[in-house]
Design goal:
alpha+beta, five-stranded antiparallel beta sheet, two-stranded antiparallel ribbon
């Protein structure tokens, strides 16, 4: 005979079949939704709180703030209580006064210069006394201004400083990699010191004398030395004659010409 399977234990007569409760699956809640209410959380925390334990704090010794001093005179009362540490006569409006550091000054800010403005590039000036002229870029100064020159022999534009906002960079470039501008030609070199006025001397109120700027002898010699090296670099260019004519010419726009659509 074939092997028979063991029969399951028969249920007791007149009794119901008891089923085991299924294990509850953990369903995670979304962020911000609590599983228990706040009141239930408080009740749960109270079970684990230490009710009977009292915190013992060390008592600080009392320090006297005032002192009784004897005062002479029949009408002064004989004694007076005086503070050991007197209050300040001046109190600032702010409880915490923050000191400003010198790094936040504008002169210490980092200067970012456009990538197109490289040494030896020919620029077009858009503002100032020499606007419309084409000049050669010598270097970028510490203040963020650009040092440019004509040269003076070609377009009568001397060494001067100008902001990069008032400049258009062209594609033509002169090789000035080996040339170094003298160290003394910096921001202080171009600063004009105001002359002191003698207040005691008699002056006419209506007479207004306008003093014209006259370049110093050092400025003239520096202009010549810088221009010589720049002109040598221009002559070494493949199209030297074209570049010289290009620097002499003035920039201008005609009708229906838009600079943002042009290539320089």
């Amino acid at each position: 005979m074939a092997p028979t399977k063991e029969k399951a234990a028969a249920a007791p007569k007149g009794g119901k079949v008891v089923k085991k409760p299924a294990a509850k699956k953990f369903q995670p809640l979304t962020d911000g939704v609590r599983r228990y209410l706040k009141r239930k959380q408080k009740a749960h925390k109270k079970l684990f709180s230490l009710k009977n334990v009292k915190k013992v704090r060390a008592e600080k010794p009392k320090v006297a703030i005032t002192v009784v001093k004897k005062i002479g005179g029949a009408k002064n009362g004989g004694e007076r209580t005086v503070l050991l540490k007197k209050n300040k006569s001046y109190l600032p409006t702010l409880s915490i006064v923050q000191k400003r550091s010198g790094k936040k000054c504008f002169r210490n800010h980092k200067r970012n210069i456009r990538k197109t403005l490289k040494k030896g590039k020919i620029l077009i000036l858009l503002a100032g006394r020499h606007k419309g002229k084409r000049v050669v870029l010598l270097k970028a100064l510490k203040s963020g201004l650009l040092l440019v020159t004509g040269p003076f022999a070609l377009n009568s534009c001397p060494m001067r400083r100008i902001s990069q906002n008032y400049v258009i960079a062209t594609k033509t470039r002169v090789n000035l990699k080996d040339y170094k501008v003298p160290k003394h030609i910096n921001d202080t070199y171009f600063r004009r010191m105001p002359k002191k006025k003698n207040s005691r001397a008699e002056r006419d109120i209506f007479a207004e004398k306008v003093e014209k700027y006259v370049p110093s002898e050092q400025r003239k010699t520096d202009q010549k030395t810088v221009d010589e090296s720049v002109l040598k670099a221009i002559k070494k260019h493949k199209e030297a004659k074209v570049v010289q004519r290009y620097l002499k010419s003035m920039f201008s726009l005609r009708t229906n010409q838009f600079p943002h659509r042009m290539q320089f």
